[in-house]
């Protein structure tokens, strides 16, 4: 079942902008944090989430509890035993069932005020039905997809002027990417430090296809090391590996040699400071080669939590969201943001 233009129009009209008494009571604490207007924007938003795996599970929990208006989830796969580790919407008896059939009622129980719709079938990103789905939502979040699919979805979002997020985990590593078009938000006014106030600021984002062409040659050694380029280029190499191998992730230690060669070639093409990163650390590519297919609940919780909260930031417009590529290193428990081809 997909959203219709009438659904979106109803959410966007003036009457829908007023919170009900029940909503005001339920969301009282968070409205004190980010304001009534931000809560109204969340309440009027329809969000499409693509694929219900570990990172999406955590992001959905945060968005539903925060009070978005409508959630549409697209996933045609069945629950597997591997899904039980990081997918807390699933139970042992759900193995073999459609993921969305098993999860829908549990998602709805988190917040009965949020409308949850599901599309429990495969819907290729180049199909007319998929494009129609994107046209009738306010924001798209694609999770655990290969690079080529992400570029296709992002380009469709650009065509219809829809903000786009993607996120995924690869063993103990992961990433979040955002393309929010021309995004307005409130930022502190640095020109008047003695009189704290906020001013409206606009950030111009880049689509993924353009972000991947980012050149690092303008950064000093210190600036380069601060954004952890070794992990960033290991993940970008993983995406290229998938492109070469029909979207398949690496499975064995032998794949590390190919990943390492791809990553080092990407580093050279991007003009990364050689003093900061002479070569891709072997530990990154070996870990990705052996664990990329596996989901670890703590990593999904951290990245999914960040993804959900950043989507809420984007909807609320009161804080700067991720701009625009975040990588998480589970070996150190730290993450860094790289501004890729943004002004």
Automatic annotation (TrEMBL):
It comes from the Eukaryota. One of its GO terms (biological process) is protein sumoylation. Residues 1-18 have a biased composition (Polar residues). Residues 27-340 form the THIF-type NAD/FAD binding fold domain. Residues 1-22 are annotated as: Disordered. InterPro entries: ThiF/MoeB/HesA, ThiF_NAD_FAD-bd, Ubiquitin-activating_enz. One of its GO terms (cellular component) is cytoplasm. Pfam families: ThiF. GO terms for molecular function: SUMO activating enzyme activity. This is THIF-type NAD/FAD binding fold domain-containing protein. It comes from Coprinopsis marcescibilis (Agaric fungus).
């Amino acid at each position: 079942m997909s959203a219709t233009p009438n659904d979106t129009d109803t959410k966007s009209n003036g009457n829908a902008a007023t919170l009900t008494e029940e909503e005001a009571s339920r969301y009282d604490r968070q409205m004190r944090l980010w304001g009534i207007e931000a809560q109204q924007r969340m309440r009027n938003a329809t969000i499409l989430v693509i694929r219900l795996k570990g990172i999406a599970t955590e992001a959905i929990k945060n968005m539903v509890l925060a009070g978005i208006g409508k959630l549409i989830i697209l996933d045609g796969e069945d629950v597997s035993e591997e899904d039980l580790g990081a997918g807390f919407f699933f139970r042992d008896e759900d193995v073999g069932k459609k993921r969305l059939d098993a999860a829908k009622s549990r998602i709805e129980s988190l917040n009965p005020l949020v409308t949850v719709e599901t599309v429990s079938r495969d819907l290729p990103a180049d199909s007319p039905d998929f494009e129609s789905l994107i046209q009738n939502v306010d924001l798209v979040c694609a999770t655990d997809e290969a690079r080529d699919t992400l570029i296709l979805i992002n380009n469709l979002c650009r065509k219809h002027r829809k903000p786009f997020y993607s996120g995924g985990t690869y063993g103990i590593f992961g990433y979040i990417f955002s393309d929010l078009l021309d995004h307005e938000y409130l930022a502190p006014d640095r020109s008047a430090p003695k009189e704290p106030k906020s001013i409206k600021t606009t950030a111009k984002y880049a689509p993924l296809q353009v972000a991947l062409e980012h050149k690092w040659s303008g950064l000093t050694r210190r600036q380069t090391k601060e954004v952890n380029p070794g992990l960033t280029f290991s993940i970008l190499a993983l995406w290229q590996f998938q492109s070469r191998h029909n979207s398949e992730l690496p499975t064995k230690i032998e794949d590390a040699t190919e990943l390492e060669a791809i990553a080092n070639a990407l580093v050279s093409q991007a003009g990364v400071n050689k003093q900061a990163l002479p070569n891709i650390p072997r530990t990154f590519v070996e870990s990705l080669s052996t664990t990329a297919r596996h989901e670890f609940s703590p990593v999904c919780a951290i990245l999914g939590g960040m993804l959900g909260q950043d989507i809420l930031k984007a909807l609320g417009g009161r804080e700067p969201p991720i701009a625009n590529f975040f990588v998480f290193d589970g070996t150190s428990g730290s993450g860094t943001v790289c501004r890729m081809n943004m002004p």
